[in-house]
Amino acid sequence: MKVIRTIAAAAVFSALSALTVSAQQPAGQRPAAPAAAQTRPAAPAAAQTRPAAPSSGANVPDGKFAIIDTDAFGDQKTGIARLVSAFQTVDREFKPRRDEIQTIKTRYDGIVKQINDTKGVADQRSLAGLADQAETLKSEIERKQQDGQRALDKRVKELTDPIYQDINTALQSFARQRGITVVFDISKMGGVMMIVDGAVDITPAFVAEYNQRNPASTAAAPPAR
Fold it and tell me: What is the CATH number of the domain that holds 176?
């Protein structure tokens, strides 16, 4: 029965081959707009594609209300450069862990294949030995995945917390300078807001101005310990 359980467990590891870094902002770290609305869990932003951000002199709404999409800050092409750079740093630092997990998973997959290919002809003692090896690798993958995720979360927080705090301050200033008193974060609004005039979106203008004043090189941080 152990052999059967081990073979069935192969599918469990289909998503364990990598530790990944998402550009999603950690809970509680999203910039606080001058006024907020309802919230919902933020979607990962790393894969988003937005039109190229205009120069820092882009038009902004001439009124008291505006919208911003804070999920777009992590866009690898058009997001906030310091933030993207921080996530890329973490991704590089954790590549060895991802590679190690992938190597172990490859060994695990090989043993499972051997069990499947020989279960009709191999003796039960041999199959049981292979099953024990697979179980050991299974436990090792799970442990390394859990340890790696904890370390990754800690490192992301270490690098991005100061950036989020600075973004928050810059966004408050950006809005005040333009006479904007309420900014709605549409990434938190779900489907409850209908945007009639896209000109009220200050995301491209804010990102462009922030990047101009805060190039990615200012995001340098000490390596992970």
Answer: 3.30.910.20
Residue type (1 letter), 218:
T
Cα distance between residue 19 and residue 156, in whole Å: 13
Give the C-alpha separation, 128 to 42, whole Å: 46
Residue 224 maps to a domain: no
Q: In terms of pTM, does the model score above 0.90?
A: no
Is residue 225 included in any domain, yes or no?
no
Structural domain of residue 91, as residue ranges?
A: 2-219
Residue whose C-alpha is closest to residue 219's, from 176, 148, 161? 161
Domain count, the chain: 1
pLDDT 10s digits, 148-190: 999 999 999 999 999 999 999 999 999 999 999 999 898 887 7
In the block, tokens 């804010």 appear at: 206
Q: How far apart are CA 193 and CA 191, in angstroms?
A: 6
